[in-house]
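Hey, resending since the last one bounced:
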Amino acid sequence: MQVDCGSDHSILVDNGGRVFAFGSNKHGQLGIGSFNDEFQPQVIGRLHDRVTQAACGTDHTLLLTGSGQVYSFGNNSHGQLGISNTYHSV
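The structure tokens again:
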């Protein structure tokens, strides 16, 4: 349904609203609960709703769900996640 790419990571959203992430994960931008790089798509499993849209920045990712929730993870050195702490991962 959708593919979006950051500097060194990619996010895929399938027709069912599941999200797959792979690539560099130095800042937790894959949202998989670790900082390990992944060379095969990994399901982001802790989302509570169907994802309808994804956007990647250089080292961060934003997801929008069908109910209007926004998930953000990765590098937040310039406030790009919209939260107060420096790093955050789902």
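The chain is about 0% helix and 45% strand.

Sorry for the duplicate.
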